[in-house]
């Protein structure tokens, strides 16, 4: 299927590895030019090089990169100094640490909200009007399945990401946005085989005193698909949400989790 987005420009955050990289690869394979942003310069440069040589080869798509902390005003300014207008924005920032709410002071909460709620809002604010003027835009926020089913050791993430979800629910349905070719959706990943998942599993192992492999096996056993997801299949979902064909999907929380969430709604 031709997704109809070749030649568009995408900003993909957290793109050096994991789910962000999966999204960058999938978009580049569709001929989308990507500006990949992450904090680690070395893995980011390697990821961009591999995408140019692999998924983007033959499509004519560019894979540019910028090492910056997108959760800071300085980082965002650096991004928009490279390029001001984007047709597609994939927001993504590393989740806050695991732990108990008794151990988190105000600074920990502010940092989590800054990274996982306010940063996506700032990126939307900076790019939305250009999308509206051109009559096309796709914003995909990578959040977490914890928005639907909170995880006890991820209280900081539960709170900050739920705040973003509530904000997007109202913004995406504004007729001044939805009627002008711009969609805003959230991707709520379940358990994907990434460094972030490994960190969460280590936290669970430390909390319970069980071996890491036993914790990992127990987590897989709870997923009807009996496996963790891959960044490549997550990226494919993201690319479809950015497609011309997905223009009638907005304000939605898409839950790729292998069937782990057991609720009807």
Automatic annotation (TrEMBL):
It holds the Pfam family adh_short_C2. It comes from the Bacteria. Belongs to the short-chain dehydrogenases/reductases (SDR) family. This is SDR family oxidoreductase. It comes from Ottowia testudinis.
């Amino acid at each position: 299927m031709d997704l109809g987005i070749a030649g568009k420009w995408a900003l993909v955050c957290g793109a050096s590895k994991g789910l962000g990289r999966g999204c960058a690869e999938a978009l580049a394979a569709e001929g989308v030019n990507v500006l990949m942003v992450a904090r680690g310069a070395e893995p980011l440069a390697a990821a961009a090089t591999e995408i140019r040589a692999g998924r983007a080869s033959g499509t004519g798509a560019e894979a540019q990169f910028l090492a910056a902390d997108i959760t800071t005003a300085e980082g965002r300014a650096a991004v928009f100094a490279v390029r001001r207008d984007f047709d597609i924005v994939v927001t993504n920032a590393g989740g806050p640490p695991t732990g108990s709410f008794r151990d988190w002071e105000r600074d920990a909460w502010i940092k989590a909200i800054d990274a996982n709620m306010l940063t996506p809002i700032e990126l939307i604010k900076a790019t939305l009007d250009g999308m509206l003027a051109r009559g096309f835009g796709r914003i995909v926020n990578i959040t977490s399945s914890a928005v639907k089913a909170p995880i006890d050791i991820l209280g900081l993430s539960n709170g900050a990401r739920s705040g973003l979800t509530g904000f997007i629910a109202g913004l995406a349905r504004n007729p001044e946005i939805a009627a002008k070719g711009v969609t805003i959706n959230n991707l709520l990943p379940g358990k994907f085989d990434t460094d972030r998942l490994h960190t969460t599993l280590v936290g669970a192992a430390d909390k319970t005193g069980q071996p890491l492999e036993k914790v990992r096996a127990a987590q897989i056993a709870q997923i009807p698909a009996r496996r963790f997801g891959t960044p490549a299949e997550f990226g494919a979902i993201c690319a479809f949400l950015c497609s011309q064909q997905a223009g009638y999907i907005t304000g939605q929380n898409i839950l790729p989790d292998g069937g782990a969430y057991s609720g009807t709604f």
